Amino acid sequence: MSIQVFILSKLMIGKTYPYELKKQMAEPIPLDELGGITESKLYYHFDALAKKGLIEPVEIIKEEHRPDKQVFGITAKGREELPKKIYKLFESANDINDIVIGLANIKYVDPEKVVDLLNVRLADYKAHWDRIMNFENTSHRDKKSENLNELLVGYFTTKSDHTIYWLEEAIKQIEQGNL
Question: Which DSSP helix (H) or strand (E) runs through 89?
């Protein structure tokens, strides 16, 4: 879904085509590589958005000795759906990676609603983590099993602390109007 939010948000600014977006994603930080976004994925999502009537082809650029480029624009329905898709990103977020595109496009939504959604996600995440940490396994384990357990508990505790910290930081930045 974040790819579709990315495409729609770019089309809010102006018309474009998949290859152009791929180039934009690679500069100055290779977001395409970090997010595993390939050109074929972009084409797939452009097609899916067009089938839903959220975007439409508006022009074909023909260049000699090159494939035609189909340029897209956002529709009225797409403008209406963009905020809903952004809110869904925040509603379903499990960590900061899931909300990066939403944070980058917060101008299209109500920041107070986003804070409310993130606070719910944060509370759910903390409650889930508390349940996991309070689980007592009373089965007998050998030394290797205990070592593995310690390793995994350490890893997941650090990951959880990291997620909580960055969700709280995102909420704070939104509340302060910095995003």
Answer: helix 76-91
User: CA–CA separation, 160 vs 152, rounded Å?
Assistant: 12
Q: Is 114:170 a contact under the CB 8 Å cutoff?
A: no
- Whole-angstrom distance, CA of residue 12 vs CA of residue 109: 13
Residue 70: strand, helix, or coil? strand
Cα separation, 2 vs 15, whole angstroms: 19
Whether residue 89 contacts residue 114, with contact meaning beta carbons closer than 8 Å, is answered with: no
pTM of the full structure? 0.84
* Amino acid at the residue 74: I
- Round to whole Å and give the CA distance between 156 and 154: 6
For the record, the structure tokens of 37 come out as 């976004």
DSSP string, 107-123: GGS-HHHHHHHHHHHHH
| Half-sphere exposure at residue 26, Cβ-oriented, CA atoms within 13 angstroms | 8
pLDDT tens per residue, range 34-64: 566 777 888 899 999 999 999 999 999 888 8
User: Which residue, 128, 74, 82, 136, is CA-closest to 109?
Assistant: 82
